[in-house]
């Protein structure tokens, strides 16, 4: 067990103990590297995202709340409530764009497309679905892509254009 240096001992002794341990560590690393067990590799460091600021957190929280309000309106099932939901989704989308959350942007666009489709505006639904697809691809969210393709297929089916290729 290594000998502990008491706080009252001279700084020279502390430095000597630290230096000897550092030297042992350095020699161990060199021996390990020369043994062939350690191989040099190149690593790429990627910084995905900076931590959110308080303002971004507040914006994100507002976007989540507004999205949930829109979802509740959609579930009411009336044409009027769905039109109100579209406006809330638009507001949420702007907030997601402000914080740069591509996945939530895509989810919101997809939700808006679904509401437009249920209201009979199939062309606007297709526009929104096609806006969400590249965002889902960008973030690698396969489930979102699959849902969007399914929704696009549903619109083409409703339009009677089953031969349309996606």
Automatic annotation (TrEMBL):
Domain of life: Bacteria
Cited InterPro entries: TPR-like_helical_dom_sf
Pfam assignment, any one: TPR_12
PANTHER family in the cross-refs: RAPSYN-RELATED, TETRATRICOPEPTIDE REPEAT PROTEIN 28
Name the UniProt record assigns to this protein: TPR repeat protein
Organism: Anabaenopsis circularis NIES-21
